[in-house]
Amino acid sequence: MTRLSNTVAVVTGGGRGIGREIALQQAREGAKVAVLARTVTEIEETVSLIEGEGGQAVAISTDMIDLAAVENAFTRIAAQLGAIDILINNHGSFQGFGPIWDCDPLVWWRDVEINLRGTFNACRSAAPMMLARSRGRIVNLVGGGTGNSFPHGSGYASSKAAIMRLTECLNDTTVIHGVRAFAVDPGLVRSAMTEMQLSSEAGKTYLPGIQKLFDDGVDIEPSRAALLIADIAAGRFDTLAGRLLRGIDDRDALAEDMDAIVAADGRALRFSAVEQAKL
């Protein structure tokens, strides 16, 4: 028996890239997987890959910013696969590049809406199901700009910082009832999102650092985040609930450092110790 046997995992944005790798790894660990995204052909391909490896999965086309659609998707998942144990919010958008006066405000806001509102909708739909059983784990993917400035990616950065804080608030609300939330930064992964940044004129103009990072060999394999999230789903990092874990982390070293991280209140959005003392 594998360590996620008899569990049900939901992976949003699971039709390609990091999300597909996460979904595949959840299935390899024994979970039944619901793969959500808008593009039917992509999520059906992910399901086909899972089934080809002997796993069980369903594809559900869902617009993550439509709360009713998300709620209906989660109801379908529970009916088809069983009660949801693991939610992984991987969906994301980053199309608004440049200083805010050059960005199309609708594109800028669309990034925030997909990333933050979509994550809120999924958490809001899943958490009551988990709380009713006093168990569950939610993983929200964050990224560039979560804990630092990202001047020409302000919409994406603002949404990811907000998701980090949402994760902390959610965990502090639910952890006493057995439901834990985590934030994961997968690192710089070559994906459809980064390819658009590399190829578009706006991306070349405002985000040249992305190409330089790839040129310098910074290219994290999506399997690293997928393996980390499988560990989270299996409970290995429960001590770090409410905190940030990274795809580049050495998972064994991270497991050894958990108590020290909590003692230092690390991997969280906080004022500095000096500023905290003044509050």
Provide a descriptive summary of the structure in words.
The protein has a seven-stranded parallel beta sheet with strand order 3-2-1-4-5-6-7, with helices on both faces. It has a single domain, classed as Rossmann fold. α2 (40-52) links the parallel β2 (32-37) and β3 (57-61). 51% of the residues lie in helices and 13% in strands. The relative contact order is 0.13. The chain is an alpha/beta fold. It is globular, with a radius of gyration of 18 Å.
Share of helix, binned: 40-55%
What is the C-alpha radius of gyration, as a whole number of Å?
A: 18 Å
State the fourth-level CATH superfamily: NAD(P)-binding Rossmann-like Domain
Strand fraction: 5-15%
- Biggest sheet: strand arrangement: 3-2-1-4-5-6-7
Main sheet overview: 7 strands, parallel
Give a short summary of the structure.
Belongs to the short-chain dehydrogenases/reductases (SDR) family. The chain has 279 residues and is of the alpha/beta class.
Structural key phrases:
single chain; alpha/beta; Rossmann fold; seven-stranded parallel β-sheet; 7 strands; 51% helix; oxidoreductase; oxidoreductase activity; NAD(P)-bd_dom_sf
